[in-house]
Amino acid sequence: MTRRRAAVVGVAAVALLVLIARYFVWIDLGARCVIGIRPSLVGYDNTTVKRALETLRHGSPEDYRKVCAHVATINPNPSCGGFGGGCFWHAEGNRGRASIDVSTEHGLIWTLAILVHETCHAVQYHEGRPPRFDLEQECYAEDDRILRALVQFE
Amino acid sequence: MIRWAIVALVVLAVLWAWLRAFAWFDPLALCRIHIDVELLEGDRGPIRAAIATVRREDPPAYRALCHWVDRIQEERQCDAGDPQADARVRRGAGAPLDPALVRARAAPGCYVRGSRVIVLRRPPEGGGDPALARERAEALKRLARYSQAFWIDRLR
Fold it and tell me: Under 8 Å CB-to-CB from B13, ≥6 apart: which residues?
């Protein structure tokens, strides 16, 4: 390989790493927290998810610790929750740190709320509670709590 | 030599346009605040006008805005709670909305604690009137101070 070609490959590799680090992974070494963020196919910005994680880290460290402990991957694409919603699947693959679906369509405030809501379902699942509609009440209360705690308007 | 000067000028012009295109950019005050609006319908102009008003009228608030806020987002409304936490709402039974949520939705903007983000409520159709500009300028002054208070409190 010529020196010129090696330089080109090196620059491309660095650019790829920067791209991945910026859009597809959340890394917080201090909190030993690494979360993957899947590519978004609908054009919404993956950085909204990262902004929500950053906001939670400073605004509600306890909730942030729960996300880090129970969530391995965030899928920002609209799924069963539709546009503006989120989802958690009671599936064998989510026994360990889980994958959650979080739509970012409605901006930072709702991304935060959905993140906390779906993490609540991951916690329920990891605690061995079966999927029942009643469990929604607890998680709606959780996202309501985080919105009331963090959104300051007066 | 002249060729390099032209290249440098072009690079500077592109950089300037890039820094300014999606943001409020005031290099003399070392101030750049990203402005997020609806992709197709959004207009950054009124938000820039509100920031300019803050700069003109209240320099300390402008400094707080530049230092403690890095993004202004225009959204449908500020939601300071989830109405679906009330099971009656989820069942579609209809229930009066919590007055705090109503006030938040009617507010011109809000600050999200833990971030450096201010959310401004999207104006109604054709809402480019001076009263709205005034309301937004006042909201920016107040919300910038909320962000300042949050971060200074954390540093203590």
Answer: none
Scanning A50-79 for CB atoms below 8 A from B yields 51, 54-60
Here the ipTM equals 0.86
A153 vs B: CB within 8 A: yes
- The 8 Å CB, 24+ separation contacts for A55-58 are A55/A108, A55/A112, A55/A150, A55/B112, A55/B113, A55/B114, A55/B115, A55/B117, A56/A112, A56/A115, A56/A116, A56/A146, A56/B114, A57/A28, A57/A31, A57/B114, A58/B114, A58/B115, A58/B154
Amino acid identity at B116? R
Describe the strand order of the beta sheet including A151-152 as a list of residue ranges: A151-152, B109-112, B117-121, B71-75, B31-36, B23-26
To the nearest 5 percent, what fractions of chain A are helix, strand and coil?
55, 15, 30
Q: Distance, in angstroms, between A60 CA and closest chain B CA?
A: 8
Q: Do A148 and B117 touch (CB under 8 A)?
A: no
B97 residue type, one letter: L
Rounded to two decimals, the pTM is 0.88
pLDDT digit of tens for each residue in chain B (156 aa)? 888 999 999 999 998 888 888 899 999 999 999 999 887 777 888 899 999 999 999 999 999 999 999 999 999 899 999 988 888 887 777 778 889 999 999 999 999 999 999 999 988 765 567 888 899 999 999 999 999 999 998 877
